[in-house]
Amino acid sequence: xxxxxxxxxxxxxxxxxxxxxxxxxxxxxxxxxxxxxxxxxxxxxxxxxxxxxxxxxxxxxxxxxxxxxxxxxxxxxxxxxxxxxxxxxxxxxxxxxxxxxxxxxxxxxxxxxxxxxxxxxxxxxxxxxxxxxxxxxxxxxxxxxxxxxxxxxxxxxxxxxxxxxxxxxxxxxxxxxxxxxxxxxxxxxxxxxxxxxxxxxxxxxxxxxxxxxxxxxxxxxxxxxxxxxxxxxxxxxxxxxxxxxxxxxxxxxxxxxxxxxxxxxxxxxxxxxxxxxxxxxxxxxxxxxxxxxxxxxxxxxxxxxxxxxxxxxxxxxxxxxxxxxxxxxxxxxxxxxxxxxxxxxxxxxxxxxxxxxxxxxxxxxxxxxxxxxxxxxxxxxxxxxxxxxxxxxxx
Length: 395
Hints:
With 395 residues, this protein is an alpha+beta fold. The protein has helices at residues 55-66, 96-108, 176-182, 205-220, 250-260, 263-278, 284-298, 322-332, 384-392, and strands spanning 28-34, 37-42, 73-78, 83-87, 113-114, 116-120, 154-159, 165-166, 188-193, 224-225, 229-231, 239-245, 306-307, 319-320, 341-342, 345-352, 357-366, 369-378.
């Protein structure tokens, strides 16, 4: 655990600013509050790029709008010709282990042969696949959002000598798409954004990845799979075979999302908020509208204090003021156990290193007192630890 070094406590200036901190800030702001009262601050009402501290806003909205006990479901249908349909609803945590469970449940329903696998991702109708902060690189944080994705739309693989490719995970068998992607990678272990590579079929790579994984796991159950994997829509009156409901609640997903700072999970929750308020299919516009209403009606803030074009903090168009983030933290106190811990402090960090964005926001527990703090730096110098050290020791 990191321990802060005790410092001399400087006197306040008339504005409430801590003079000790001026040398650390060329473009940024901070704030420390208790019971909704701001004790110290600089640039309290100035909007800054928040990076992943914006996930606090998304998470709070998900907990309040979806509810902490909300679950996501994936639906399996079968028609009279033996075609199996999979319809997704944007589960942020649909991983290989769950697909294996779904395959087992299909087998338990007495299904022994499948003619085609049709993947229905129409629960999402996104106007654009990624945010302006993403370049669709092979990095896992650049993945796009989908109604039907697996393993956060990232592929694990191990490239050996002579371009031989294996799966490094026991829960994820080797798939043909791994071999194709691995041809362009150096030897070693990789986890990559599946859609950053050229398409291998008419299907988007994320759907092909899902389909290949599902097919192999069905075959593991002794089910014969014929035909092809296609994209399509579940016809009306098709029999529902399984409604697979995830074990993780919204609270579980928020905790995991904040701990790993997973952009995919954050935006899947962000899109689910829009669906909850305005119906399916999910769109960025619906979620932006839903979040603007939440900011105004629930948080009592003006939309100029929080600008959200997406929910992860990856976009450079997002903005939030230290004052607004203090309000979010006050509202987040009942969910404080979901926040990660760093340096012994309950907080969320946010970093866009190449763009000079270094942020912290969280709660400091001092005896019976809980104080909210915000540090938003949009500058080359990453002085957030030094600023936090000073704020931590204010009485």
